[in-house]
Amino acid sequence: MASTPICGPETHNQQAFDILHYDVVLDLTLAPTPVTKGIATISLRWLKDRTNEDFYFMLRSLIIDSIFYNGKSSLANINGNTSDSIYYYSVTPLGAKLDTDIVKIYYSGTMTSEPGTQAWGGVLSYPTQQILFSNGVGFHNNYVSATQHWMPCFDHPSDKATFSGHFKVKKNMICASVGMLKIDSSSSDYNIYNWEEKFPCASYLMTFGVAPFKELRFDTDSLPVVVYTYKDTTQTRHTFKLITKAISMLERYFGKYPFDKVGYYTAPVGSMEHQTMITLSDALISPTDTINKNAYHELSHMWFGDMLTCADFTHAWLNESFATFTESLWRGELNGFNDYLNSQKEKLSRYLNYLVPQDGVIPLYHFPREKTSNYPETIYQKGALVLGMLRYIVGDSLYFLSMKKYLEKFKYGNVTSEELKSVLEQYCKTDLTSFFNQWIYGAGFPILTIEAHKMPNANGKVDCAIYINQTQPANYGIYTELPLEFTFTDSASNKFNRVYYPKSANDVAQFKDLDNFVSCQVNSGPSVRSLIKITSIKTEIFSFDQTLNTEIYPNPATDEIFVDYQTNNNQKNEIKIFNQLGECVYKLLTDDNFLKVDVSRLSDGIYFLNHSTGTNNARVRFLIAR
Fold this sequence. Notes:
By secondary structure, the protein is an alpha+beta fold. The chain has five domains: 1-210, tricorn interacting facor f3 domain (Immunoglobulin-like); 213-307, Neutral Protease, domain 2, CATH 1.10.390.10; 317-439, Neutral Protease Domain 2 (Neutral Protease, domain 2), CATH 1.10.390; 445-543, Immunoglobulin-like (Sandwich), CATH 2.60.40.1840; 546-626, Sandwich (Immunoglobulin-like), CATH 2.60.40. The protein is elongated and about 110 Å long.
């Protein structure tokens, strides 16, 4: 038994070997029938002494005809069962150790997809469209990566390698794949499509698509852009009308496009961000849609997911949250910042109203995939909202600078959530531990009740106290990394805004010297959309005739409050405290002009103090929060 254990889809431990290059020869002349013969030549180097080590690879459904290790005939041992998340072959090294060892595998059979009736990953055949293609991940397979359905590979995102694919297809077919293309048309019966990807690529980001495609070009001055489609070419051109604008936007935010080409091919099932050759659902080809958000979501994966690849699938949010966030950036690019906010608002609505009931309340990092799927939509929509809040908290300049530094530091490598956090902290100059604990590693979200209370002041303005109560289940935690934007509207419909970060489960946001307003709303201002659920917001404003200048501090309070007021010495001061149910929990008649009240026996929550001298009155709201 080898001394280094293999890593699974949700674990990452450095293997004893590092794969440098895959060279695959695949006969696809029967496409769309998924029967094939193939030769995979795998170049690798050893990172440890190979004496007590094995080389591992994955292959499903297909039959191994023979294996050669450094030119010597070898055998592969099967480990695990096909129902296991870790099912693989192990090969003992043979011959003298070379700088680069070569494993050549001859294989054949019928290529398959992930098990189940909702197959998405693996190799898929659609005879009606005459297409045979592969998707690199599955939604419901416990092994996630699905390239092992058509080529032997170490099918884990942590070991990236360059790739050469030589696909033999019938003359009426085109084969799309990753990298740059050279076609061999020497035969009268078939073509060989030679694709070469010189940039490191995770196995799950490799693909092929064989169909009677038509090729459309959208090249820029510096970048080839190609779309292979069997759909109507006029509609396809219309759908991709803005692709160069999308590339330009992504480069401005995240740096130069990291590969040699942009490529797409249409398929009946998609979409998937294969490196430089994106699979796009044919349902997205439309005569009316030029925004094409799904296509450009996948395009943004060339930065987030392809150039930088998650170390294992517990960090899949690093791919999907960023790509979904760029959908909002794209809306802002086309229609202005307000439409960016509209996009974020739509994601908030979908998350709260649809995904929470569907997925349950799950974290972005290391979510329970057995209860949802390998790619629950929560990591898309919730993740985009979280990234939007982070953008507001640190500001655009630091946010996008940090993103570029993050991409540069780990260029063409693998990343973890903690590595993203480290780079953000370095360039944003702030400790993001609480933010990540609350929003990335934590499963919940804040559920709020909000009440606003305004009071005229001596300056001809109004003071406002907004009582913010977090009512979510205790296991969600308390949220303090939470920008709450309040929008105040006056009688002439003019609006002004303030942002507040709650400090505790029950908190009071106090704003002084505001213009008089008639309503207060939250999370609808011009700056940010936060991930909150509001169960109650009182838009009626509590405004009392204040004929006494009565103040309470501290507010919020813990075990005692001080009541400060000035009245005539011959006046009796009646002090009453009411809870939210209207019950009087404290009563005192005193001649004193300053009062200390023990509230240690009162529970946390909102209270009202009424102060009356008989002819003059004041009502002050305060909060007890421990």
